[in-house]
Amino acid sequence: MTSARFATRRASLAAAAAAFLLGAAPAFAAGPTLLNVSYDVARELYKNYNPVFIAHWKKTTGEDLSINQSHGGSSKQVRSVADGLEADVVTMNQANDIDFLHDRANLVAADWARRLPNNSAPSTSTSVILVRKGNPKGIKEWADLGKPGVSVVIPNPKVTGNGRYTYLAAWGSILKSGGDAAKARDVVTRIFANVPVFDGGGRAATTTFAQRNIGDALATFESEVPLIQREFGADFDVVYPSTSILAENPVAVVDKVVDRKGTRKQAEAYLKYLWSDEGQEIIAQHNLRPRSEKVLAKYAKAFPKINLFTVDELFGGWKKAQKDHFDDGGTYDQVIAVAKKR
Fold it and tell me: What is residue 36's three-state secondary structure?
């Protein structure tokens, strides 16, 4: 290379570096990246949703966008965010986990649930029971999981929304059938005495049941059943108890992170698009119940009508349920202490 050409190239590189430092990024710079921190069994949903939104964003704004995912037990995930994991958005399966980010670290706004429709939950699900083919133990209701000789796999309620929903579904089913709190505690204690292992997430619990062949039943979200059957075969039946719990899947922008990174407009659009026709279709295709009545009607055969109660209705909301049942020393810890002795 001649000295003149070398000098010209050196000047060009210096100009590019100066432009970058001044904020005028060169043409080859990548676009912004979002991190979606989510609960364990939403992995496939967002794996399919992300490229659809990326294409929509590119078409709408001309901007390239990358989206990364992080999945695990819901409470573990939000604790990681509170401890510094830089999530632009959180997409969880219970409001209490997002409230934690406000109460513990002031990372989200107090009014996060009012920023989007439906309490900022674009989909719902419910807790069901997966059993071995032919249902050899004759399980029909939540209380049947507490019968002698039944082994049931449930994710750990201390760290997973899946486990907490199961616990509350069983407790609430007794109340809805006319039983009192003492009866509910007894039934739930019997159920948890039949749990051989407490996994740290819904997907790990699925592996324990379906791959390691442990347990007669698996308590899981309705949305997980088709995935399990596709991945592990048709050797399972799904049992819909006569009463179960409504599981809302709320989402929120992590305000402090997006404001620091400059990704607020992308993060807000990413969540808002979940309510679009295209977003609701993807939600329904992953066996989550969409909020759109039109899309729900299209997929009606996939979502049997059952009696559902809410956490607000029977437990006074998630904050009260957390304090009464799942905080250290709460009813769940008391139940487990008795269950271990049986």
Answer: strand
1-38, pLDDT tens digit by residue? 444 443 444 344 343 333 333 333 333 347 999 999 99
Q: How many CB atoms lie within 10 A of CB 231?
A: 11
Structure tokens at 64: 């390239």
Task: Give dist(CA 7, CA 2) in Å, integer.
Answer: 9
Q: Are 76 and 39 in contact (CB under 8 A)?
A: no
Q: How many CB atoms lie within 10 A of CB 58?
A: 13
Q: Label the pairing between strands 307-309 and 217-221.
A: unpaired
Q: Do the beta carbons of residue 228 and residue 153 sit within 8 Å?
A: no
Taking the CB of residue 324, how many other CB atoms lie within 10 A of it?
13
281 class by beta-carbon count within 10 Å (0-12 exposed, 13-18 middle, 19+ buried): middle
The whole-angstrom separation of Cα 11 and Cα 207 is: 58
For residue 38, give the 3-state DSSP assignment.
strand
Q: Which residues of 14-31 are buried (b: 16+ CB within 10 A; e: fewer)?
A: eeeeeeeeeeeeeeeeee
- Write down the residue that tokens 């400059």 correspond to: 262
Span 40-61, pLDDT tens digits: 889 999 999 999 999 999 999 9
